[in-house]
Structure formats: structure tokens, C-alpha cells
Amino acid sequence: MNQILGEQSIAFEQSSYIIGDACIAGEKEGQGPYKNEFDKIETDPYFGQDSWEEAESQLQLQTAALALEKTGLTSRDIRYIFAGDLLGQNIATSFGLMDLNRPLFGLYGACSTLGESLSLGSMAISGGFADKVMCLTSSHFGSAEKQFRFPLEYGNQRPLSATWTVTGSGAFILSSEPPRAGASVRITGITTGAITDYGITDSMNMGAAMAPAACDTIFKNLQDFSRMPEDYDKIITGDLGSIGQEILIKLLRDKGYDISDRHLDCGIEIFDADTQDTHAGGSGCGCSACMLSAHILKQLRAGVWKRVLLVPTGALLSTVSFNEGQSVPGIAHGVVLESA
Amino acid sequence: MNQILGEQSIAFEQSSYIIGDACIAGEKEGQGPYKNEFDKIETDPYFGQDSWEEAESQLQLQTAALALEKTGLTSRDIRYIFAGDLLGQNIATSFGLMDLNRPLFGLYGACSTLGESLSLGSMAISGGFADKVMCLTSSHFGSAEKQFRFPLEYGNQRPLSATWTVTGSGAFILSSEPPRAGASVRITGITTGAITDYGITDSMNMGAAMAPAACDTIFKNLQDFSRMPEDYDKIITGDLGSIGQEILIKLLRDKGYDISDRHLDCGIEIFDADTQDTHAGGSGCGCSACMLSAHILKQLRAGVWKRVLLVPTGALLSTVSFNEGQSVPGIAHGVVLESA
Lengths: 340, 340
Prior knowledge:
The structure is a homodimer. Chain A is α/β, with parallel strands linked by helices.
């Protein structure tokens, strides 16, 4: 039986295996520290389309197709897709994945959506509802700036606390069976986040808004699984950026846990802030998805890391909520990844 | 074991029980044919708040609280919430449910979100991941018109094919155990929809855009479960409206199934089009949610109906996709409800 742990966690009896994955990143990401690790770097920000939204849809479709191709599968082998993006009404996902013609659960968890999709995907596998599912998220600098901030043509200045939305997508194929050959990674547990709201109202400082949510989910994970930070080789957040990271480490220290020697943040990792002018770091659903595919899974498959807690973090705002003076609540969904 | 049926369906071995529910509707809904069936009718369209979005959040919170109260539970008894709304970045849900402080899976399936939430909620129960979950959706006429169409102050005319967004919310508590007393309703199966796109580009005719999706999901359900329409007392769609209903019945006839004598559409039911000037009918995530709580569950509990196929339908558009000339794809998620 699957074990329900504490208030927010599950330890899966039947783990799901990540048997395939792919990531495609944009040009700027392709100039960063992980330039040699992405499956593909697309230098055309429009991905051959006519709008930023269509570009992101095309990015999703290409990433999904590449994950299938690398795994030797066709879309018919996938029972469910769990996917989402940052745009209003999830249109990158709807228009991107419709041609795959698979049962689709559309998700919205802002930049935490990767954690949400892997959580629900692994529940579908571990619950015996599917043999194989695909979990996919994306973000696109152009579509996100247009949706959340200013038109690119406006050329506004950005405060140093701002993050840079990653143009990228990652797709992950989960299976009830291990891959036929080679090392694998299993999802052995999840810790599902609740919304936390510390009253942050600065949409240009999303790291500060999301850090309490990441703290809460990591704390609950350690408690629910009766683990210490040392039981994970790495604890990896989604896109807190440099300011959020500081806050997270401090908040967890206040609760008695020191993760400073094993914390990584995908947003800090994906760009070189010194040379790429990305301020606090990268963000977006595509950030943690690209880093999971390009780097984290590889380290786990190689056995460099044995167990990782991945915690994609989301800032639950819209331009409407922000312009109406609402705060920016955060949410974070934790996924336990182990080398198999 | 749960049975995986065909390409898109699951028959649950361990059904989940809908042990509690509540619905709150707006004033116009409260003047319609089901005025005596809603738990509460709120005549203040702002629900005591300052904006349409906050009004919808308040509507969600009140509905969730009422469902808990009616069931004799507190939010701590709920392991997961599966919820969504129509607004960009799901803000009605994020700001509405954060005070419940429960692990939250944010969903987006446009008006099909009720089907999506009941599907994932019943998977969580049937998979042994939770004892009790809450599934909740909402829509609000004011927030939806502002998001998708025109400011209310503009007073635009509406074509007869347009639907009227329901101000309403329904919350459903699913449990692995039947209720302590009284008749109950079980979720015995699901059929998860894929996106269908017939190239409809008229956002004022969403019934036509969604009918093919409803047809596809109903067809797959009948095939996957080896059932005929007669095996259901009712086949109930979400918000096709009168034009979509005609198309659905015709499309299914072309595939060899006649559902005309047992089809209901929540959008047609919830208003009296002749006297309420609602044109093609009601729509929105709150439409099917209110009708499920106010009417469908009651008929099932009373044994008037034994088995119902509920198919909430969604039109996957945003103002951005629509204004960029994209089509309006549809999706529909089917849920099999049986009196227990």
C-alpha cells in the first residue's frame, strides 16, 4: 500500500520510473552554464510561428515529440498528459498539445506546475491508473513578459530582485516499469504544498513571495518522512533566485534545519547572473523543467546523487490580482527523486 | 484492481463516495427554475468584496465552508483540494482557498474543470492517496465578462448563440467510506477527454466549439465501458447550451448512438431562456457544479436516477488566443455517478 505520511506527503509503494525526458531551451539559456546539457537550443525565439504564444505552444509540442522519440514511444503509448504553463487559460498547453490527441489534465500552479504535474503523474502511475504518462511544462520569455509585465518593445528597466523568465520546456515520461536498459530515476514520494501568503505585494520580487512556500513544503517533507537534510544529496528549488534563496535558508534555519550546504536553485543555476544580466536568476515553469532534464536526472542516473528533493515553486499572481493590490501568495510542490 | 478500459477510461474497483456537497448561486440563478434547490442564493454580486475577482474568491470560500459544515467536517479533514476557475492564473481559486490551508492542486480545464477535479479527486481516493478530498469549481458573471468579453458598463449586445456565465460555485467532498447515514452517490468510473478542435473561431458560439469534445468523450465512454445510452438514466453535459445540444445529438447519431431521450445540459437547465434572456443558456465552471449539487446528486440519492454520465465541457480559449485568430478547441471530462 502507498503510505500516507503526515499531513501533506505520500511514500509510494509502487514508485514510478522516469523512463524518458527531453528539454528544449532558448538562445539565452543556450549561452548559460548548461549550454551543453540541453537536448536542443532554439535560436529563433518565435520557433517558426507568428506570436509568442504560438511559439511557446510549438516549443511544448517539439519537446513532447523529442521525449517520445528519445524513449522510442509514440503518443499512443501515453495514457495521460499532465501539463501546464504560465499563460492565462493555459493556452500554450492547449494549443501546443492538442495534436498529440491524448487525454489531458490541464494544470495551473504557476512555476510550481512541474512539481504538480510530476505529483499527479506519479499518483496516476502508482495508483494503477496508467502504464505511462507524460508530465510537461513550459515558459517563454516573450509570452510571459507580455502576459505579466510590459511589452518587450517598451524596454523597461528591471529591478535587481526581478527574475528572467526562461524560454524552455521539459517533458518527462513516467512509467510503472523501469526502462529496458540503463540507469533510471524513480519518484518515491511527494509532498504537496498549501498556499502560503506572507503579504508580499512586489511582483518584481517573486523570490521573496515564494520562499515561505518552499520553506513550508521542505519542512513538511522532512517531518513527514522523518528525514534530515542530510538524507538528501541535494534539495533543489524551482526559481527562488538569489534573494529567495537567502530567505529560504534563513527561514529553515529558524525551524531547525540547515540546508545551506545542499541547496540548489534552478533559477540561480540556469543563467550566469554576472555575465548574462539576469538579475536574481531565471524563473518560469520551463526553468525547473529544463534543469530537471538537463542536469538533475543526469546526476541521479550517474549515481552522483542518490536522492534529491525537488521543490518547484510558484507565485500565484495575475496582472489582475496584482493591479488590484492583492498580495503574491506562493505554493511549492515537492517530489522525491531517487536513483534506481 | 482498478480497471483501465480502452484508451481513455477507468472503472474504479474502490469507488469514491460523494459524502457532502454544497452550492451557492447568484441572484439571477436564484430566479431560475432551480431557485429552490440551491443551498444559498447571494443577491450581492460582490459578495461583500471590492472587485469581481474577490467576489468569486469569496464565493468559493463560502461554498467550501458550507460543504464542510453540512458534512460535519473541518478543513483539516480534507487531504487535498482539486479546484479551478476560469480566470487567468486561476486567481479566484488561489485567493479563495488559501485560508483553508490545505494541499492544493490547481486545475484548468475551462468549464470542464468540474469533470477534471472529480476525476483527479476520485483517482486520489481510489488510489489510496487520501481518505477525503474536496473538488470545487466556480464562475462569476462579472469576473468572466471582464476577463473574456467586454466590461459590463459597455452594455454590448450579445448574439443569440452566446451563453450567460453562471455566478455560482459547487464543492464536493469525496471519501473512501460511505456517509454514516442516508443515501449516497459513488463515482464508479471516469473517461478523460482529449482536446478536439473543429476550427470554430466564434467565441460567442462556444456550444458549437464544445459539442465535438462532448461527443468524443461520450462516445469513448460508451465504447470503453461497453455500454449503450440506455445504461445511463441521464447523460448530462456541462454547458453546451441549446445550439451545442443540437450539434451533440446529431454528432452522436452519426456515430450510431441516440441520446436525445436522456440528454440534459446544465447550461440549458439552470436558466429559463424564455423569461431570463440568457440566449443559448448558462455556462462557466459554476454552472455544472451548481447543477450537480442542486439537482443531479439529489436525483441520484433519491434513487430517481441510478446511473448518470456527467460530462462537463470546456472551451479552451483566452482573449489572447481569440484575438490572435486562433480557433476555440474543446475538451470534456466524463464522470460516472451511481446511486449507492
